Description:
The structure is a single chain. By secondary structure, this protein is an all-alpha fold. It has one domain (24-236). The chain is built from 11 helices and no strands. The chain is globular and about 45 Å long. The relative contact order is 0.23.
Amino acid sequence: MSYLLLSLTSIIAGLISGVTGTGSSLILIPVLTATLGAKEAVPVMAIAALLGNISRVVIWRKNIDWSAFCWFALPALPAVVAGANTLIALPESILNTTLGIFFLALCPARHWLKRSNFTLRPLHLLFCGIFTGFLTGLVFSTGPLMLPLLSAYGLLPAPLLATESAISFLLYLTKSVAFTRLGVLTPNIIISGLLTGMMIALGSLGAKRIVLALPPAFYSLILDGVLIMAGVGLVLG
């Protein structure tokens, strides 16, 4: 019954993350924790997010902004490894609470940045990638952080979701390899991660048509909701 619940929740999470570009980790972590335990939830979600982002990359591959991808993702890779190693030594609850507060502050901040016509340049993306990569190694999800940053770079909904998916795929691949080298991945974690990831991918298949039909203002409202959900979830979790 617990794995059936996990599968159904994963499909719903895939649909939501396919529309918003993030959110699957935040929806699934409570179910994963209840099913497998908190210690195994992080590596399971890393594998699941890897598979979930594969489907989104395939669906949105023609919309990827490769310049933004390279400036953001490539410098983030060594930072992901550093973050995964730091996760072993530091209390994750403190890090999640800090990041949750940041997400809650990010919601009004991104509107202020938009009104002030603030934009990120390629060099800014490089430093944002290093910072986000380190956090990706530490916590469940940094999608709510990546989306406003890439949006400030000038990416519209379709390229935004496509590029975020490609970046997330590479970061979670690196995180999974780091967990493998640290000896964290057991057969049960791998199987659970593959099952969850396949269900997320299934849910993502129905999202593209929804995204293309959304007006920009409504999409922005959804993104605000995800940021608030992410912040509250991390603070309370």
